[in-house]
Design brief:
The complex is a heterodimer of chains A (367) and B (369). Chain A is mainly alpha-helical. In chain A, 68% of the residues lie in helices and 5% in strands. Chain A has a two-stranded antiparallel sheet. In chain A, helix 7 crosses helix 11, helix 12 (271-281) crosses helix 13 (295-313) and helix 13 (295-313) runs antiparallel to helix 14 (317-343). The radius of gyration of chain A is 21 Å and the shape is globular. The radius of gyration of chain B is 23 Å and the shape is globular. Classes of the chains: A mainly alpha (367), B mainly alpha (369). At the A-B interface, helix 6, helix 12 and helix 14 of A face helix 7, helix 13, helix 15 and helix 16 of B.
Chain lengths: 367, 369
Amino acid sequence: MDLSKTDVLPTRSKARLSNSNLLFLIAAVIFIVMYVFAVISFPGSFMQFQTFVDFFNLNAPLIIMTLGLCIVMIGGGIDISVGSVCGLVTMACAVLLESHIGNVWGAILLALGIGIAFGLLQGYLIAYLEIQPFIITLAGLFLANGLLTMLHKDPINVTRPDFVALRDFDIVIPFLGTKNRLGVFIPCEIKPGVIVVVVLIVLLAALMKWSRFGRNVYAVGGNSQSAMMLGINVKRTIFFSYVLCGLTAGIAGFVFIMTTGAGNIGNAAGFEMKAIASAIIGGTLLNGGVGNLLGAPIGTLTLLIINELIRAAGVQSNFQAIISGLLLYLFIVLQSVVMSLRDRKKISLALPPWVKLPWFRNKEQSV
Amino acid sequence: MNMQKVMTRMSHLVLPISVLLLLIIINLIKGADYFSITVVKGALYGNIPNILFGASELVILTIGMTLVTAASQGQDISIGVSATITSAIFVLFVINAAEVTLVTIIAGFLISCVAGLLIGAFNGILVSIFKVQPMVATLILFTGGRSIAFMIDGKLSPILANDISNQIGTVIPGVPIQTPIILTVVFIIITAWVLKTTNLRLYAQSVGINPSAARLNGINPKKIIFLTFLIMGVCTAVAGFIAVNKAGRHDSVNLLKLIMMDAILAVAIGGNSLSGGKFSITGSIIGAYTIEMLNRTLLRLEVEPEAIKAFKAVFIIILMVVSSPVVRDFTRKIMDRVRTLGLIDGVLKRHAPETAAVSSPGSIKRKEE
């Protein structure tokens, strides 16, 4: 309930929203506006509950990756190796599952192991040897990509019966669904990856909000010098943020192969930039110290809705990239303008007294 | 004393030069004919000219990247994409021209430079006025830029089939050195001249170290950051011009793909901090050539093409660990200890006065750093 605690250093007056929450609020409002716009312009497809669920079904790996990346970015770092690590995990799992010793549990362990190994390596080099994160994670990107191509070059389709059963497993929600043209009722289906996403969102958001580690990450990202003076172990905090990011990349890899069921060199290629873009749209600043983990799924979904809208409008495929670039431009400028106006104290989000959102109850009490 | 001054001034170049030497030694072990140069149709060919030829775009982009990094404390990740857009405009102009002469090519190049300036202004306004981090600001162009280049092309990879482009991409008859190398050298000389005659270096460094302190001293940080992005735009235009003439056709999907990673790496290998401040263009240029040499060395060592990326990554990690501040402090401590032991040894042997007089100021100076 108390979101104002997410910033370790309180803003000047308690009555104002913290930067994290303001950016999150902007992202959430834009997401809702986009979705309403989508529903109005294409009521046939976007009204269906399945369409909404499919955003999660098909893009669960990206959301998971963005969560981990957000933690690193709040801590003031960057990790551009997440996409390649995810791709490496899919291929390694596929090779393991197709060999005679493989089983699903082994694949899960392998996925987590690869992710944590990359996290440990990068975290140690960045936190304890004080090397620039961009370069180390760039090397991580090359390493994961190189290992992926060394491991196997051709696409592998996993045919193990127990894995295929897991891949095809759908959770059916009987009361939500749509009728197709013939009048047959099709219930809504959810992939198991979505449950992983929801669990991770809840777990990591709680971790960042209420645990000591989470608050340390905000403090370190805001100002590592003053965090150190407050007695926070800066190096250990940075180290664990990278380990956590590696772990989420590993999980994302397993969810990826659980959705598609095949290992391929092109898996998760270019996801790192998508994840960074989603994190930015979700209100995380690259400087560190500002961000809300709930913004990660919102940012990802906003990016995806933009793409889906353009696809639904039937525009030429080249315009897709241009329009998503333009929208990214709008987001970034909007965020920047709002932040700079706040610094000049020209606006403070003064809500009328009759708006009683649960988040702001604390503010009203303090006034 | 003079020698010491030179040594301290050159201390940031130790890392890139030692890496370069290491690579040369590896290559010489592999085969003693590494430096051999052959003359084919009046032009020089061999390993060294090939490295200089292959790294020409990277060097030009690295120069711009060093300036941007120094002033704006961040990196421009859209350079490959901007070079693709500018070269698409160049190709469009040349193909639509009635007759391809040297004037047409130069006019096309100037137009592409204007496009580069516009792109630089776009990024620069975002970074300097809207105060967006450079990586985020350039992510916009990175997302949508290749589609823009594709739309300018209008069709799949138009071909530059004329003699002048061919000569710019390879060799001009009668000149023994490949044209891209000459263009790169000219560009480096112009940059050196600009940095020598203007205050750009000082201003960029002071803005990068502390923008508010720079503002209090009468430097406008916004202007300087904007200027570095404009220079970056010109660099991308020149690099795109060279790349497209080298390739002979404009492939908007793959032209200079992922070159920003190499450029940032070159800046880091050159001993520059990626968080802005003091910079050394010389180091960056050596870094760029080092990367090209590394790529070619891996090919020469017959590493499988699939494994090249992994090897490169391991090399980068080792390099960064060796040059990391913690390891550097550690070696400095050990060196000091060795020196102190030597000093004590000298005292015992009663040769103390000269040794102490020479070595103690050096060690004190080093501690101050």
